[in-house]
Design a protein that fits this description.
Layout (H helix, E strand, L loop, with lengths): L2 E4 L4 E6 L11 E7 L4 H5 L8 E5 H7 L6 E4 L12 E3 L12 E3 L3 E6 L6 H13 L7 E3 L4 E3 L1 H7 L1 E4 L2 H41 L2 H7 L5 H4 L7 H8 L16 E4 L4 E5 L8 E2 L5 E4 L15 E2 L4 E2 L5 E4 L8 E3 L5 E2 L3 E6 L4 H10 L1 H5 L12 H5 L2 E4 L2 H41 L4 H11 L1
Parallel strand pairs: 3-7, 15-20
Antiparallel strand pairs: 1-11, 2-8, 3-4, 5-6, 5-8, 9-10, 12-22, 13-21, 14-16, 15-16, 17-20, 18-19, 18-21
Helix pairs in contact: 3-12, 5-9, 5-12, 5-13, 12-13
């Protein structure tokens, strides 16, 4: 039987974080400050949203994070996402920033006694009791910010501690699923970057035309080495003019409106009394609540759907502070008034997707100065963009589509991996399932 140990007795050191100052001053140290809002991204090594702040020297020295630390969110949660979330910091988390890491003031770090507990095991245990809502009694909603009663939790909560080898084995099984999820996410970033690089060369820099102007005759060279088959390269090179017009565009190409490339379907919410959370009717998409990491997700349904998405639609928020956030429809959804769906002409969806993604900042300028940002149907339809010949748009989409389909495959695989991880987590921690059985399930999921 596993021994039970209070959390506080497993820790070598723990401290609250710091927020510091926004500008450099004498006596301050520049550090990357991980906030609770960054936990989800940082877990998978995405530090793009982590801000840099300036921390007093003494606090920086005491509170500088190390590999193996566990971050615990202690303030700022909500009813649907209470405090108590955790993230584990591995050595690779320290390769993304050129400055030291520290957690923000609404979090604290836990540094374990490694002779007693494997830090990854403790992370997964805390993750398990968070997901099961066993930590919820320590989430206290005061008049202002919700807070996690850490001192009470650490002095009251007993944690089952098997031998170190067993802890390590459990952490390895669960960690392997997270590692595969991270690998897929990074692969998707690479695939998206590949599609955007082709788009930028063809439709922003006009690379094939400029290379012709510079005297390139070899089709592989004209296409920038994109394809190595000479016949295929020639077919692509023939699509691009050898001169630029007075407007700076490839000769014969035009600027136009987005509605020349896509249908724009503005959402219209059905009546509230048709909503349900029982899966009856058509799933509803009305804003970021229904946005997953890549696709729409089913949270509410309506028995009286209005305007519907189609598989592959580019779905974008058009109201409020989240205007511009976007995902894709992997099924039929009822489009509420908080979103719009952009549906490319046949065979051209990938060109439309990349046009919007690459020029999203320009589109969002239409909301500048608004107290309540929003994009109207006319804002989107009239958006000025490049409208190259259909043959070029089609060829781009033919190149981009397999990249997108691989991304979609990876996203769906990640959903399976995450579901397997979340299924195994409580069962491994409780001993309901053996390690060998868990390893078989992990292998089947990958």
């Amino acid at each position: 039987m596993n021994k039970l140990v209070l959390l506080r007795d497993l820790l070598e050191f723990t401290r609250d974080g710091e927020w510091g100052k926004g500008e450099a001053r004498d006596g301050l140290v520049e550090m990357a400050v991980i906030r609770g809002t960054d936990f989800g991204a940082v877990r998978f090594n995405d530090f793009s949203s982590v801000p840099t702040r300036f921390i007093p020297e003494k606090a920086a020295a005491r509170k500088k994070l190390q590999p193996g630390d566990i971050l615990l969110e202690t303030a700022g949660g909500t009813k649907d996402q209470p405090t108590g979330r955790t993230v584990f910091l591995s050595p690779r988390h320290f390769t993304h920033k050129s400055v030291p890491l520290i957690c923000a003031s609404f979090s604290r770090f836990l540094r374990v006694k490694k002779d007693l507990v494997e830090p990854r095991y403790l992370f997964w245990y805390l993750q398990s009791i968070y997901e099961s809502r066993e930590m919820l009694p320590y989430h206290i909603q005061h008049t202002g910010v919700a807070r996690f009663q850490y001192t009470d939790f650490a002095s009251q909560w007993q944690i089952p501690i098997p031998d170190i080898d067993h802890q390590t084995a459990i952490a390895n099984v669960l960690g392997s699923l997270d590692d595969k999820i991270e690998l897929n996410r990074r692969m998707n970033e690479t695939l998206e970057a590949m599609a955007q690089a082709i788009f930028r060369d063809w439709f922003v820099d006009f690379g094939p035309t400029r290379r012709k102007l510079e005297g390139a005759a070899d089709p592989i060279t004209v296409m920038g080495g994109l394809v190595q088959d000479a016949e295929r390269a020639q077919a692509l090179a023939d699509l691009f003019p050898a001169a630029l017009g007075d407007d700076g565009l490839p000769e014969g190409w035009n600027a136009g409106r987005l509605d020349e490339l896509a249908e724009v379907h503005m959402g219209a919410s059905p009546k509230g009394d048709t909503y349900n959370e029982d899966g009856v009717g058509t799933p509803l998409a009305n804003g970021p609540v229904e946005f997953g990491d890549y696709f729409l997700v089913e949270r509410k349904w309506t028995t009286s759907p209005t305007r519907l998405s189609q598989v592959g639609d580019f779905v974008i928020c058009v109201r409020g502070s989240t205007t511009g956030r976007h995902v894709f429809a992997d099924g039929v959804y009822c489009l509420g008034r908080g979103v719009a769906a952009l549906r490319g002409l046949p065979g051209e969806q990938d060109f439309v997707n990349t046009t919007i993604i690459m020029h999203l900042d320009t589109l969002l300028q239409k909301t500048t100065g608004s107290v309540f940002p929003n994009l109207s149907g006319d804002d989107i339809r009239s958006f000025s963009c490049l409208v190259p010949p259909k043959s070029v748009r089609r060829q781009f989409s033919l190149l981009a589509e397999p990249l997108r389909m691989r991304i979609w495959h990876n996203v769906h695989e990640n959903h399976t991996l995450a579901a397997t991880r979340d299924l195994l987590l409580p069962k491994l921690m409780s001993g309901e399932i053996r390690l060998s059985e868990a390893e078989d399930l992990v292998e089947a999921a990958q």
